[in-house]
Amino acid sequence: MNQASNASGPSGISTLWIALRAGIVFILICGIVYPLATTGIAQAIMPHQANGSLVKDAEGHVVGSALIGQNFADPKYFQGRVSSISYQAEASGSNNYGPSNPELLNRTQASIDAWKAANPDVPVDRVPISLLTNSASGLDPHISPESAQVQIPRISKLTGISPEQLGQLVDAHTAGRDLGVFGEPRVNVLELNLALRALLAK
């Protein structure tokens, strides 16, 4: 009887009021103050990254993000890694097939056949394996410098740009290891292709 009275009495109302005030405080801190503070700091320190690392073309139009790969259907441009999800960011991921899975073997064979058809001058055994297989996310915007260089003969033939010029273009867009030790050298395919398009326009 005493417990029931306490739950609905002055002490019960006091507890409810304390919980309500605590909820309001946490809503203000976690829902308003913290998001505004982190957004403001990000915009002040690294606005490019905070806004999605957007990439613009020579005319100033946004053409993509440096963090998300794209399909380049035109063979005169550099190609990125295979993506099982066609670089759809809302469906990030990949089928984790084992090495003996028939679907993985068929998919890899299809990539090999496509390479042979588009690059008859470059034997498959010279192609980095990463260029024939997809990444775990399916969104990888980078390829290795070797994966870019092995595409130069095809692009040179289709564009008339000398292999030497294309090699210099790849070198100019090759990023080194972070802080000199982390990760591997890499080439952003979108940024490289924008530079190639600018070269073609000349």
TrEMBL record:
What stretches pass through the bilayer? Answer: 16-37
Localization recorded for this chain is: Cell membrane
Q: Which UniProt keywords apply?
A: ATP-binding, Cell membrane, Ion transport, Membrane, Nucleotide-binding, Potassium, Potassium transport, Transmembrane, Transmembrane helix, Transport
Q: What's a GO cellular component annotated to this UniProt protein?
A: plasma membrane
The annotated topology with respect to the bilayer is: Single-pass membrane protein
Q: Which domain of life is it from?
A: Bacteria
InterPro entries in the record, alphabetically? Answer: KdpC
Which Pfam families does the entry link to?
KdpC
One example of the protein's molecular function in GO is: P-type potassium transmembrane transporter activity
Q: Which family does it belong to?
A: Belongs to the KdpC family.
Q: How does it assemble?
A: The system is composed of three essential subunits: KdpA, KdpB and KdpC.
What function does this protein fulfil?
Answer: Part of the high-affinity ATP-driven potassium transport (or Kdp) system, which catalyzes the hydrolysis of ATP coupled with the electrogenic transport of potassium into the cytoplasm. This subunit acts as a catalytic chaperone that increases the ATP-binding affinity of the ATP-hydrolyzing subunit KdpB by the formation of a transient KdpB/KdpC/ATP ternary complex.
According to UniProt, the name of this protein is Potassium-transporting ATPase KdpC subunit
Gene for this protein? kdpC
